[in-house]
Amino acid sequence: MTDSAPASYEDAVERLEEIIDRLDSGQAGLRETLDLCKEGRTLVDYCAGELDAVGEGLKELNLDDLAAKLDSSATPGA
Amino acid sequence: MDSSQISLGVGARPGPDLPGPFAVGRYAKVLQEEMRKRARVLLIGEVTGMGRSRKQAYFELRDGEGAVPCVIWLNDLERAGLPEGALRDGVEVVIAGGPDYYPGGGAASPSFSFRATHVRLAGEGDLMARLEALRTQLRGEGLFELQKQLARPALPKTIGVVTAEGGAARRDLLAGLARRGWGGTVVWAFAPVQDRHAAPAIARALQDLAARPEIEAIVVTRGGGSLADLWAFCDETLCRTVAMLRVPVVSAVGHERDSTLIDDVAAIFCSTPTHAAEAVVPLDCGAARRDLGRMALTLRRGADGAIGARARHLGALARGPARALQRQRTFLNQKTREIRAASERGIAERAASQRRIAGLVLERARRRALGQVERAGEEGRRHGVALDMASERAVAQRREALRQAAVALRAHDPERTLERGYALAETEDGEPLTGAAAVAAAGRFSLRFSDGRVDARTAADPGPGTGGDRRD
Description:
The complex is a heterodimer of chains A (about 80) and B (about 475).
Chain A: H1 9-25, H2 30-53, E1 55-62, H3 63-74
Helix pairs in contact in A: 1-2
Chain B: H1 24-36, E1 41-52, E2 56-62, E3 67-73, H2 74-80, E4 92-102, E5 111-121, H3 124-140, H4 143-146, E6 158-163, H5 168-179, E7 183-190, H6 198-210, E8 217-222, H7 236-244, E9 249-253, H8 261-265, E10 268-269, H9 273-280, H10 285-412, H11 414-419, E11 424-426, H12 436-442, E12 444-449, E13 452-457
Parallel strand pairs in B: 3-5, 6-7, 6-8, 8-9, 9-10
Antiparallel strand pairs in B: 1-2, 1-4, 2-3, 4-5, 11-12, 12-13
């Protein structure tokens, strides 16, 4: 189990599938099962956050809009 | 130019090693002649800066690497049989001709041009030949692989799109993204997608998008068309730009796969903008949400199940010793019953066996005893006669001894003495008083005769009731 956040959504899902396969195998001991479930819940939370980030409706910007928006947010007091 | 072809009018030399100086008009004339001697060739390129004068048409023929100014006499152009207006900016043409030089005149400026004598619109074959040559070159440089080595996120939050502002591709792409259930941010970088300005504008848009760190993938798209229409996407400079970008590019140009050079250098190519939406957001977000819910449920059941199953197992283990004891107790009881039954059978069998053995032994003993008895009887009978005779002799002997003893005893019996007239002094208790002192000490005594007893007392005895001396 790693305490660091997954590198990407697909990494998180891949690890989740490994965890579920291991749990389904029935070979994990109690301690390992609890650790895997804890890690899995963290990954699910991460994935849910990623999906939420693209779940609020499509937004459209022109490149100039994006640059202006980011530049203004980067300028203190703007 | 060979300096020997020009005769010099003056002898002054500007430098120690160069021929001349030549009169420039003459030089220009010779230059024109030299140009016209050059081999005639076919050129292919895009027409730009199309214009006409009274006698000829002029334009530049250009591609990504350079351009050549061209002129064609109008009568040659008419012979080409092109449709009206076909020779215009942006079209790809093949021209035949060779270099020419116009030395100028009194008022006209000199100029170099490629004098075209024939012209036709570039066909698919011409373009494909150019495309294949470019493709071979770029592949040889390894530029097809660079984009394909980039990691493509399954779930980008921000994507860039290069397309024509009013094109149908924009609408199709948005519809495709919506079907993915994707609601991230699209950053548009609009650019012309057909003409000689398209390729540089697209390349610039791509670079601008890739410069934004939040953009995780870029789509380049336009609708269908002929290869000539799509020719901007075969531009060598544009394709080199795409190959070197740090952001993966999804190309969806035209409606045929692998038709333009940008398809080769892009990370992934698609036939339509709709497919490009699926490629740039590989994850079906709706399905992913459902899958994630299932996985979360599996995890929760996994944790609960693991604990519950183990709790049940532990409970079973906790009850195990009692069950084991009960099993052992039952087992022992069973064995006890079996042993008891077996021992009872054994005892009975042994008792029966012992009875049989004892019977046999007793029978043998009885028979042996009977034999011995018989033998003893026989022997007894044999000795009986001798015994009887010996016994009779012993009895007679003992009877005689007894008689003699009786005689001897009688001789010593005091009664016999009394019978001879003696008396025996005794105490009142019958104890014999064997001396005078004893009689004197007793005071009162009895004399026993053979025919009876007489009480007596010594003279010193006072008698009854006096307590004083009394003489007989």
